[in-house]
Amino acid sequence: MKIQRIEAIPYSIPYAHPLKFASGEVTDAEHVLVRIHSDDGHIGEADAPPRPYTYGETQDSIMSIIDKVFSPQLIGLDPLDRGKVHEVLDRTIHNQVAKGAIDIALWDLLGKALGTPVHKLLGGYADSMRVSHMLGFRPAEELLEEALRFGEDYGITTFKLKVGRRPLALDIEACHVLRAGLGDDVEIYLDANRGWTANEALEVLRRTEGLGLTKLEEPCDAKEAMSRRRLVEKSPIPIVGDESVPTAGDVSRELLAGGSNAICIKTARSGFTEAGQILGLCAGLGVDVTMGNQIDTQIGSLATVTFGAAHEATTRSAGELSNFLDMSDDLIAEPIRISGGRISVRNVPGVGAGIDEDKLARYRQN
Predict the structure, then answer these.
(1) Is 78 a catalytic residue?
(2) Residue 341, helix vs strand vs coil
(3) Distance (Å, rounded) from C-alpha 125 to C-alpha 157?
(4) Catalytic annotation on 224?
(5) Rounded distance, CA 106 to CA 53, Å?
(6) Annotated catalytic, 294?
(7) Annotated catalytic residue: which of 294, 296, 298, 326?
(8) Which residue of the set 108, 200, 266, 326 is catalytic?
(9) pLDDT tens track for 306-344
(10) pLDDT given at position 62
(11) Which of 66, 85, 145, 279 has its CA 20 to 30 A from that of 186?
C-alpha cells in the first residue's frame, strides 16, 4: 500500500452562534478537509481548523504547505511507515494544524485498510467521553441560560468559561452567576487565552475563592516566564498549558520552567501520534491532561473522542467536544449525538467521520 494522492480542500460553513473569546472570534468555519488516497483505494480524512490568531496558520497556508511541501515528499510512501512520514513533516517547522490533519487522515486510512476502529488501534480504553461545553463572551445571565439549556438538553455538567481581555469585573461576575445558578455539582473552569497578566489572574482567583473552580487555562502569555511561574506557585488550582504547548517539546519546556502544572491536548494541532507522545510524557511525570477543542467541526470533535476515549488518563476529565452545536451545518454524514453528557466512539473501521459529499460540494471553496 502506498500514498497515491493528497487533497487539501477548502470549505466554509457559517456559525449560527459565533464564539468570541480573548484571542479572537470565530464566525465561519473556514477549514480545510484533508484527504489521503492510497493506491489500493482507501481514503483517510481529517479536518484542519486554521487559527491564525493562535498558531499563525490560515486556510491558504494550510493548503499551500500540504500541496507544495508535504505532498511531493509523502506520495509513494507506505502509510504504515509512520516514522518516515513524520521525518518528512518534522523537516518543516511550525504548521502544526496541517501536520495534525495529515497524521489523523493517515490513521483513518490505516484503520480502514485494517478494518479496525482507530480508537482500538490507539488503546481502546473506553467507548465514550464525558463532554465539556465552552461558554464564550456574553452577559452573565445569558451564559447561565445557555449552560442550563445544555445541561437539560444534553446532560452536560462541565463548562469552560472563556475569560480575559475585558474588565475583570465581568469575568468575576460570570463565575459567581454560573455557580449560583448551576449549583455545586456542576464543574466550572476558566480559559483566559493569554488575556490576563499573572497579577490579574491572581486577583480573579482571589475574588472567586470558594466557588469551586477546578482549573485555569492559559491565563497569561507563557513568554512571561517568571510571572507565570509565580502564578503556578500561588494558584490554588492547576494552571493548564494550552496554546503554549502544541508539541511534546513545548510541553517539556513549559513543565520544566514551572509555567504550567497541567496540559491540554488538542488532536487538531498534534494529530494522534504527537498527542500520544505528549500523553506519555505527562503520564510519566504524573501531570494531569485534558482534551481540548479548537472550535472543531463534528469531524474534528470525533477525532478528539477517538483519541481521548482510547486512554485512561484522557478520560478522567470531560473533553471539550460540543461546540460544533454552534455551527449552522457540518460535513459529517452521520451527525454526532450527545446523550447523557457523553459522546461515543464509532465502532467502524477508521475514525468514523464519513463525509456527506453533497454538503462538501455545497460548502467547498474551489
Answers:
(1) no
(2) coil
(3) 22
(4) no
(5) 27
(6) yes
(7) 294
(8) 266
(9) 999 999 999 999 999 998 998 999 999 999 999 999 999
(10) 98
(11) 279
